[in-house]
Amino acid sequence: MNAITITKAMKPRHLLTAALFALTALFSSQSFAQSPIYTAFFSDTAVSGYDTVAYFTQNKPVKGNSSYSTQYKGADWLFSSKANLEMFKADPEKYAPQYGGYCAWAVANNDTAKADPLQWAVHQGKLYLNYDADIRKKWFSDKDALIVKANNNWPNVIK
Question: Residue 60 CA to chain centroid, in angstroms?
């Protein structure tokens, strides 16, 4: 083999090494802090696009509409009506889910996890989301104690 062939043969390996290094840096928990509002990996939309006001006013999850949207804490929030959008804008802390929309049970256990907007509860005037139905059952079994723990852990779990 001559020197040119060796150089060409090494390039893919160097590229692979560089790519692995870049991916490691990108996904390393120390390379960036989590957002205070949970959004999907390739999205800036809070609560998977559900209208957070509807949990309080209609007692159910309702998909939002991009025609009624606002920005809050670096995320896009969608609403099903202009009235709900205006209610949120007037008092976002009242309607935004606790712990930035991360799973309440995970935050209580000093961790974070995505939350399913269909696994929800309004408890003492606050909206809580959970990862899935099984986790929601665990959360409901001792929600008051878990809320105390989650309140103590939040927002340190995202730093």
Answer: 19
